[in-house]
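Dear Dr. L.,

I hope this message finds you well. Following up on our conversation about the binding site, I have prepared a predicted three-dimensional model of the protein together with adenosine-5'-triphosphate. For your records, I am including the exact sequence and ligand specification that went into the calculation, followed by the structure tokens. Please feel free to forward this to your student if that is useful.
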Amino acid sequence: LQTLYTPLEQLGKLYLDLKQQILDAEAMFFLLDEPVEINDKPNAPDLKMAPNEQAQIEFKNVSFSYQKKKNAAKIQVINDLSFTINPGERVAIVGPSGVGKSTLARLLYRLYDVDQGAILLNGINIANMKQESLRRHIGIVSQDPALFNNTIAYNIGYGCADHNATLEQVIDVSKRASIHNFIIAQPLGYGTPVGERGVRLSGGEKQRVSIARAVLKDPKIMIFDEATSSLDSITESEILFAMNDISRGRTCLTIAHRLSTVMDADKILVLKKGTLVEMGTHDDLLKVENGVYKSLWNQQQRISDLKKSLQAAKSLT
Ligand code: ATP
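The resulting structure of the complex is given below.
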């Protein structure tokens, strides 16, 4: 039993350092080439949200350019973009590769400040609030979370920004993220080392660790970076179930690659070259003649049909 509790004791000791590290580790998900230092304004207030308050997000005429190095040319990625995500709404961002989907999530997490326009959270410009307090309210679920050379209990408990996680809490969130059975099947259970020196986790397992962390963090806003690598259908449906579970009561933004997984989003934003070209539900967007969404959908359907025929042909040989 001691092996299980040691990592949780460490959690307590590391608590103060961890608060900042959690934010840094989540920022690592964005894999920035050139991280930019974002400075808070003097005496910037904390973002304070009441327990039952939900988040409304408004992008108001936002433009943004990357600049690889000082004095290098600026590359405009987001161009005069405006949209609103209502409290508790589930919104997906879709569009061809490189149109700026992840950039929108980075701007919301305030890894960069916008060049023009503003991002408002419940009417307050996020550039005017303390960045740490903003990030505390945003959870990120990806297939590539930062993992530490420590036990699985530590890696999950690490997601908790506001208080020390107890083993009971870690077990509880692991059940909700459908990773508990996998953990207890390991010889050392919750004391199993992961990371480079421990058990290698698959994409689906990492995603579940990321979900468990997010449940513990209990944020008002969830950003889902949809898995790009394929998961088997049981794993995929378990993960979708867990993601649905943690989406409830929160405002959610999904960076989507496969349209089939975001068909039931409340709103789908279609980006093209950094501008919003279409917005609506899946059914609305399929009705747009010569629409970008419709053409992406048809293209993905053709690829999926082709894969199915190839699999069928393989099973015959
Ligand atoms: P994908 O679907 O391939 O993940 P995306 O729509 O999420 O793409 P972004 O990652 O937001 O696209 O990138 C938008 C554009 O900005 C791309 O042309 C990309 O090369 C460029 N870009 C992204 N990150 C940086 C950076 N740190 N510095 C400079 N340019 C960048």
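In brief: Residues 32-34, 66, 68, 75, 77, 97-103 surround adenosine-5'-triphosphate (CB under 6 Å).

With kind regards,
A. P.
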